[in-house]
Amino acid sequence: MTNRRWFLTLAAVCPLLVASVAEAGSYLNRAAMLVAQGARESEFLRGRVGDKDLAELVHAVAAARLEAASRMNVPKEVVLAHPHLLLTLENYERSADAAVEGQNERFLIYQQRARDEEGILRGVLKQLGWVLPDVK
After folding, report:
1. What backbone torsions phi and psi does residue 74 show, to the nearest 5 degrees?
2. What is the residue extent of each domain of the chain?
3. CATH topology for the 2-127 domain
4. What are the backbone angles phi and psi of residue 130, rounded to the nearest 5°?
5. Is 82 in contact with 35 (CB distance < 8 Å)?
6. Angle between helices 2-46 and 82-100 (to 10 degrees)
7. DSSP category for residue 130
8. pLDDT at 131 over 50
9. Is the pLDDT of residue 16 over 70?
10. Are 69 and 12 in contact, with CB atoms under 8 Å apart?
11. Among 24, 67, 105, 111, which one is most buried in terms of CB atoms within 10 A?
12. Which helix (DSSP H) or strand (DSSP E) does residue 8 occupy?
């Protein structure tokens, strides 16, 4: 009787565990895409920081990316990492804004802060037992 009760309990809990992993996996995929695109655009802009039209476009996209991330559903398994995702994206947005304003030094400072914050994001995820997937 005890084995049967244990098996029924396990059968009831298993779908919850799978759903939890699926939610965290979806969040990690979304976060990875947002971070990778922010980094890619920022690096592209770095080589063309004097192009104001490009800087305005990158800034608009970075602001939209930050807004989208702020409205994302965040599974409880990774809730401690989400503020670092937002800070990463906010720093990419601020770096693009600095490029729009022609403030090259400020652009570089915020770009570096975004990279540093991404490292913190990855570290927090690692402590929680998760990894931000690589985006090609």
Report:
1. -115, 115
2. 2-127
3. Four Helix Bundle (Hemerythrin (Met), subunit A) (1.20.120)
4. -125, 160
5. no
6. 10
7. -
8. yes
9. no
10. no
11. 111
12. helix 2-46
Given a contact cutoff of 8 angstroms between Cβ atoms, the answer to whether 95 and 42 are in contact is yes
Residue with tokens 């090609």: 136
In which band, very low, low, confident or very high, does the pLDDT at 136 lie, cut at 50, 70 and 90?
A: confident
Rounded Cα–Cα distance for residues 68 and 116 (Å): 21
Q: pLDDT digit string (tens) for 21-68?
A: 445 889 999 999 999 999 999 999 999 999 999 999 999 999 999 999
Q: Following DSSP, what letter does each residue of 45-107 receive, concatenated?
A: HHTTTT-HHHHHHHHHHHHHHHHHHHTS---GGGTTTHHHHHHHHHHHHHHHHHHHTT-HHHH
- Number of Cα atoms under 13 Å in the Cβ half of residue 61: 15
Residue 59: both structure tokens together = 């800034």
Q: Are 89 and 62 in contact (CB under 8 A)?
A: yes
Q: List all residues 6 or more positions away from 37 whose beta carbon is below 8 Å from its beta carbon.
A: 61, 65, 135
